[in-house]
Amino acid sequence: MNRGFLLGAVVAAGAVMLIPGVAQAVGRAGRPLARAAMRTGTAAYDGFRRAGAEAWEHMEDIAAEIREETERERHAEAAAAAAGGDTAAGEGPATKAHAGPAPGTPTEPAGDD
């Protein structure tokens, strides 16, 4: 919240309280208004807390899925490396280059006609 606005609101509220009779009226109405404001604030806090807890749970689920996928990939790579044995350094079974032209490239050299 803007500090200037907050200061202006406090000064205005203080000035209004100096008017005779206003302080008594605010005092009588103040408690129910404060209770209503606190009730609304509490309800909003509970709603935000629930929403935050659900969002946190979803993020934990996603993180657990990512950890599980990473472990599966590591185990698959380790098994492939153990099974491959004599592959060239840096080229595991999953990283070998494709033999032949790349998809979408012409298979015959272009000639000058």
Describe the main β-sheet briefly.
none
- Low-pLDDT stretches are none
What is the percentage of strand-forming residues?
under 5%
- Strand and helix order: HH
The number of distinct β-strands equals 0
Instruction: Report the end-to-end length measured between terminal Cα atoms.
Output: 75 Å
How would you classify the helix and strand content by structural class?
A: mainly alpha
What gyration radius follows from the Cα positions, in whole Å? 35 Å
Helix content: 55-70%
What is the overall number of helices? Answer: 2
| Shape verdict | rod-shaped
Mean pLDDT: 78
Descriptive labels:
113 residues; mainly alpha; 69% helix; rod-shaped; 2 helices
